[in-house]
Amino acid sequence: MKYISTRGNAPELTFEEVLLTGLAADGGLYVPKEVPTFSAEEIASWRDLPYTELAHKVLYPFVEGCVDSAALKTMLDEVYSGFGHKAVAPLQQIDHNEYVLELFQGPTLAFKDFALQLLGRLLDYVLERRHEKVVIMGATSGDTGSAAIEGTKACRNVDIFILHPHGKVSDVQRRQMTTVVGDNIHNIAIEGNFDDAQDMVKASFGDQSFLRGERKLVAVNSINWARIMAQIVYYFYSALNLGAPERAVAYSVPTGNFGDIFAGYMAKKMGLPIEQLIIATNSNDVLHRFMSKNQYEVRPLKHTITPSMDIAVSSNFERLLFDLYDHDGPALAELMARMNAKQDIVTLDEDKLAKARELFDSQAVDENETIATMQQVYDETGYLLDPHTAVGVKAARDCRRNQQIPMITLGTAHPVKFEEAVKRAGFDVPALPHHLADLMEREEKLDVLPAELATVQGFIAEKTFHD
Ligand SMILES: N[C@@H](CCOP(=O)(O)O)C(=O)O
């Protein structure tokens, strides 16, 4: 399997190289040169497989030639046996033909664990072989950070630097990052917002000279293809559980960086009969405005009760645009330059947008609607949604095209992570699970830095271990 850049002007890479590369040299994102596809018969034959075995079927074509089949199996067994539910990704029914896919059974209680637990093991595997050490640099609006730290803290060859917006993640989210002990783990609270953090991460990948040439940066955000890849599996798992491939399915995905929903788009390309993908955003609604009005305009970021989705620029949208532009890298590079300039309103050719609208719908959900949905679902079922999942359920109910097709909302996180929203909805905050029971008493370690690239890069260079 080879990987190519969305902007058409960077070398083709192997999986191993993509894993260790954040942004492509031309500023684009890596995607598979050819997407592996499966026939309906083959997919049907996987119906009774446990999660790890299904994961091996779906993932092996992406890593073949770089990761040994047996080694991948061992990694998948290790990763998903550590989840809190034997089904790994259980479905919870909330209405007739309507489900929440619980993706919060991993160690940090968010869907990010699915990929980042695996990414840590993949890094160990390839870095040992290459005798290399790397610096992990990531930006988080709340969930990626702790999942990245948890997934890579045991890696022998990494220093980890996670940037989060100071005061703008929930207490549980922050503590899940700042209480993990290790000389190689650094939490940087940026005096700015998530986009400031993400911009600094991307700029650092573009010019890594601040590391003085000794190490390379590795991405834990969904700009890293390995993140998307691992997230494809739970689409197959849930769809098979509900009768695919004979029966079509639809998904609503609470979306910030567009990575999770792009994984669903990939699953469809690989052969899964997905009829509809709903882009569910909070009031940081750049994608909804774009999909509904054909106007791409980045507006100032708002701080909401769904902090993980407080993102103004959705990195992975570029991967979808690459397909809509028929893999015309130079044309996409020109479009991305206009989009990233954040000055004008950018529009797409109507035929390209029409192509996207065949599969995607979108909806922006405000805080009152989010709270009301948490209350409504609880009243109807006794099931407490986290606020991000509630955004997804509201969008699912408003945008659903066909009541006969099962609608699955991705349950992106556990409600215990979002005390403010849970209390505003009038509920008691559930108890933290056993392994996090003393989280609020643990000692925290973090550094507060201004949102200045040179300062952040200087900090990383100074704290990185040198041989
Ligand atoms: N929603 C994320 C923000 C980063 O997105 P990613 O999927 O690219 O890691 C978070 O919770 O940190």
Automatic annotation (TrEMBL):
Residue ranges of every copy of the Threonine synthase N-terminal domain listed in the record: 2-80
Which GO molecular function annotations are given, in alphabetical order? threonine synthase activity
Question: Which top-rank group of organisms is this from?
Answer: Bacteria
The cofactor required is: pyridoxal 5'-phosphate
Output the CDD domains linked to this UniProt entry: Thr-synth_2 (cd01560)
Q: Recite the UniProt keywords alphabetically.
A: Amino-acid biosynthesis, Lyase, Pyridoxal phosphate, Threonine biosynthesis
Top-tier EC class: lyase
Which InterPro entries does the protein's record reference? Ser/Thr_deHydtase_PyrdxlP-BS (IPR000634), Thr_synth_N (IPR029144), Thr_synth_N_sf (IPR037158), Thr_synthase-like (IPR004450), Threonine_Synthase (IPR051166), TrpB-like_PALP (IPR001926), TrpB-like_PALP_sf (IPR036052)
Q: What is its EC number?
A: 4.2.3.1
Q: In which pathway does it act?
A: Amino-acid biosynthesis; L-threonine biosynthesis; L-threonine from L-aspartate: step 5/5
Which stretches make up the Tryptophan synthase beta chain-like PALP domain? Answer: 99-327
Is NADP set as a keyword in this record? no
Question: Membrane-crossing residues?
Answer: none
Q: Which reaction does it catalyse?
A: O-phospho-L-homoserine + H2O = L-threonine + phosphate
Q: Name one Pfam family in it.
A: PALP
Q: Which NCBIfam families did the record assign? A: thrC
Q: Would you identify the family this protein belongs to, as annotated? A: Belongs to the threonine synthase family.
Record protein name field: Threonine synthase
* Native source organism of the sequence: Bacterioplanoides pacificum
